[in-house]
């Protein structure tokens, strides 16, 4: 199980220290906060807060409730989050990343690569074959490229993400 500080660390890696400050302020509030309240609490500019809240809302790290002020046409927005919301959003983000990494790993394992010794452009076997095993840019003869280090790196990233997902230990959102 990840601690609150570890969750905040992930938020900071994705949205910077300003994003972390916003999330910390929202987590302290039981009734949600408006942008002006967040600005007073965090000493951040309202435009920066608004931009970050919209980014975080797209990935559902925060939620907002809109209510109409009396009979006017003006709306009031209250922003909310808690550890459960953050965990579910983080799990969705990590699973999407894991899918991309697994696809890339499969591609790296199933493809033979060639590289130009001059400009280091990498070609798949099909691309190299179409160009007569010559670089498209400088016409140098291509040499086989060993991508084992890339495969090893991808496997380690996948393993690390799987450990984090296990530590979150929540059901699929």
What does this structure look like?
The chain is an alpha+beta fold. The chain folds into two domains: 4-81, Orthogonal Bundle (Arc Repressor Mutant, subunit A); 87-168, no CATH class. It contains six helices and five strands; from the N terminus they run H-H-H-E-E-H-E-E-H-E-H. The protein has helices at residues 4-28, 35-42, 46-58, 83-110, 125-130, 148-168, and strands at residues 63-68, 75-80, 113-115, 122-124, 143-145. Strands 4-3-5 form a three-stranded antiparallel β-sheet. Strand 1 (63-68) and strand 2 form a beta hairpin. Helix 4 packs antiparallel against helix 6. It starts with a helix and ends in a 5-residue tail after the last helix. The model has no long low-confidence stretch (mean pLDDT 92).
Quick overview:
With 173 residues, this protein is α+β, with helices and mostly antiparallel strands.
What's the helix and strand layout?
Blueprint: H1 4-28, H2 35-42, H3 46-58, E1 63-68, E2 75-80, H4 83-110, E3 113-115, E4 122-124, H5 125-130, E5 143-145, H6 148-168
Antiparallel strand pairs: 1-2, 3-4, 3-5
Helix pairs in contact: 1-3, 1-4, 4-6
């Amino acid at each position: 199980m990840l601690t609150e500080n570890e969750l905040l660390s992930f938020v900071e890696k994705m949205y910077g220290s300003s994003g972390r400050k916003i999330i910390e302020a929202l987590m302290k509030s039981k009734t949600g906060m408006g942008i002006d309240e967040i600005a007073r609490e965090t000493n951040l500019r309202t435009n920066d807060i608004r931009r970050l809240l919209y980014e975080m809302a797209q990935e559902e790290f925060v939620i907002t409730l809109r209510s109409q002020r009396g009979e006017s046409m003006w709306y009031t927005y209250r922003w909310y989050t808690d550890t459960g919301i953050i965990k579910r959003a983080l799990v969705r983000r990590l699973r999407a990343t894991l899918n991309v990494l697994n696809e890339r790993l499969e591609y790296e394992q199933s493809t033979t690569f060639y590289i130009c010794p001059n400009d280091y452009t990498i070609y798949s076997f099909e691309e190299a074959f179409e160009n007569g095993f010559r670089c498209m840019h400088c016409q140098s003869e291509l040499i086989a490229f060993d991508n084992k280090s890339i495969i090893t790196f991808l496997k380690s990233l996948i393993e690390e993400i799987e450990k984090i997902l296990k530590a979150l230990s929540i059901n699929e959102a």
